[in-house]
Specification:
Number of domains of chain A: 2
Order of helices and strands of chain A: EEEHEEEEHEHEHEHEHEEHEHEHE
Oligomer: homodimer
Radius of gyration of chain A: 20 Å
CATH architecture of the largest domain in chain A: 3-Layer(aba) Sandwich
CATH topology of the largest domain in chain A: Rossmann fold
Distance between the termini of chain A: 10 Å
CATH class of the largest domain in chain A: Alpha Beta
Number of strands of chain A: 16
Strand content of chain A: 25-35%
């Protein structure tokens, strides 16, 4: 089952605008050997996420940039296949930042044991992992939602957006999602129970958001930025709360984009806009994980994964995600469970 | 002393861009007579404030717009000269929204008794009035400042900015102000004790702010918006807090201005941007008023007023303020105290 070599994807060149396949390099090398106190992990599932784009640029953001030649950073779920530490045993399943490669070595300090009873292993990277925790804490803690709030979620069918919208529905909010295809809109309304959906690619977003939110927007969970966010800013309710989770529409621009100056709306509506990172809530992730796992078991929450097979297909899938082509949480299946 | 007629300024036409003198009309009419239950107030001091510009446009903001022909709205300190209610006696000094006119009638519901022992009457409109309370609550409650914070204040010599900067100094912050002339910069540094000042009219604001705030900006109290705010957004410290008090650079534009999309900085720095209005803290204004009055008496706080004489000069002074030509809290002296 396991290959006899380790295949990995490295950063070959820094993208100018959207990444190209030639910005990545597939390298095959011997499987690394764990030293004393280390473990060898075979990757099963690799998570592909928008934040990785930021780490490809020079200068870093909230974390250092990758250097050219580095393995692409990323979290994976894998199995301990060799252990030279008493901390982990062969066969255990862990979540670790081993990057885009089939095998990784770790001293255990950055590994989290995965509880397989909570759900399928892949969910430990998605709805029960970083993206689920981002949704749970970003929405419930940063947005301070109240039942009856009008909630807008951008990238609503994405890994984070689908969870935000479902939590909002569970707690009695009116939920409007934006997404980039009719399939996605149908999904969030018919499968996830959103009240309305707006296809930002073929609707006048400003008009559609105003029409969908006649009482104004109390909460906006923003994954995209750009014109969708502009439209929200013109339709805020008093005391609105905006969580800035991501700004994917801006990540692949060679030059910063111009947009209307609209901060004044925060003043007029006594509204708050707040950026956050999921790590801020690290000491409480277990709470969110257990709550979401319960909702899934109770049938109150669904999730959608978009699975690609094989490390060699990760770059194209990642580029597609940055263009909004994924449908649900994007994962690379690296080996059999 | 009192004139035998009431002179008032009305809104003649809605400004397109910066207001012009011809947008205002000076009307002379008989002094109004208070009805049963009402008082007649003779204005002593009239406050001119940027928010008035918003009320001149069509469609309103957080409050309804003025209609053409309406007396320009505004707060004044005046003396009760006739009373047909038991609530107020002739001779009492009140703060009331009687607008840009020499005499106003009120049923008392919108009047606040002024305590002359707290300071000169004019201060009831400035540092001990709406602008002082805006500074006190906007800074201390919205910005959540900590000693040692790097604090940037825009329009730092203005009615609100000068108070924000001085409170920040009292509590041990490092304070940088922006203003539009060397006189104003000299004033905030030499008289008010700011640590640094940046003249946005003749310095590269982005470079100057980065240089003045090497540890990043923890708190930004924004009165202006535009390029000063852009520069701050590129120099945020982690967990920065931004209070949006005003956006005067944007109030006189016929079309919304474009600026760089920079919300992503809130995400990277887990930062918060929040708009507020002074009315939100109305139930606590007395606390702020007494605290600031004490600081003034203790010599810990100064204030600067920019006084114009006579209602007929209010329109030009107001237009000048929107262009940043005032130096300190702008007041019109309407009659002798």
């Amino acid at each position: 089952m396991a290959s006899q070599s380790n295949r990995k994807i490295t950063l070959k060149s820094r993208p100018d605008g959207y990444p190209k396949l030639s910005d990545f390099e597939l390298i095959e090398e011997p499987i690394p050997q764990p030293g004393e106190g280390e473990v060898l992990i075979q990757s099963i599932w690799l998570s592909l996420d928008p934040y990785m784009r930021g780490r490809m640029r020079e200068g870093g953001t909230y974390a250092p940039s990758m250097e050219l030649g580095d393995v692409m950073i990323g979290s994976a779920i894998g199995r301990i296949v060799e252990s030279r530490t008493s901390l982990f045993s062969v066969g255990e399943i862990v979540d670790g930042a081993i990057g885009w490669q089939e095998y990784g070595v770790s001293d255990g300090s950055n590994l989290r044991r995965v509880d397989p009873s909570l759900g399928p292993l892949s969910t430990a990277l998605g709805i029960l992992g970083m993206t689920g925790m981002t949704a749970y804490f970003g929405f419930l803690h940063v947005c301070d939602p109240k039942p009856g709030d009008t909630v807008v979620v951008s990238a609503a069918s994405g890994a984070v957006g689908q969870v935000v919208g479902q939590i909002a529905k569970i707690m009695g909010c009116y939920v409007v999602g934006t997404a980039g295809s009719q399939d996605k809109i149908d999904y969030i309304i018919n499968e996830l129970g959103f009240d309305a959906g707006i296809n930002y690619r073929n609707e006048d977003v400003a008009q559609a958001i105003a029409a969908a939110c006649p009482l104004g927007i109390d909460v906006y969970f923003d994954n995209v930025g750009g014109p969708v966010t502009d439209a929200v800013m013109e339709n805020l309710a008093d005391f609105a709360r905006i969580a800035i989770c991501g700004q994917i529409s801006q990540y692949n621009l060679a030059e910063p984009e111009l947009g209307p100056r609209n901060i004044r709306n925060l003043n007029i509506h006594k509204a708050r806009m707040e950026g956050f990172l999921v790590f801020q809530f690290a000491d409480r992730h277990e709470e969110g994980r257990q709550r979401i796992a319960r909702w899934i078991k109770e049938g109150k929450m669904k999730y959608k994964e978009d699975v690609v097979e094989g490390i060699e297909n990760a770059p194209a899938a990642f580029i597609g995600m940055l263009r909004g082509e994924n449908f649900g949480k994007l994962l690379v299946k690296m080996s059999e469970e």
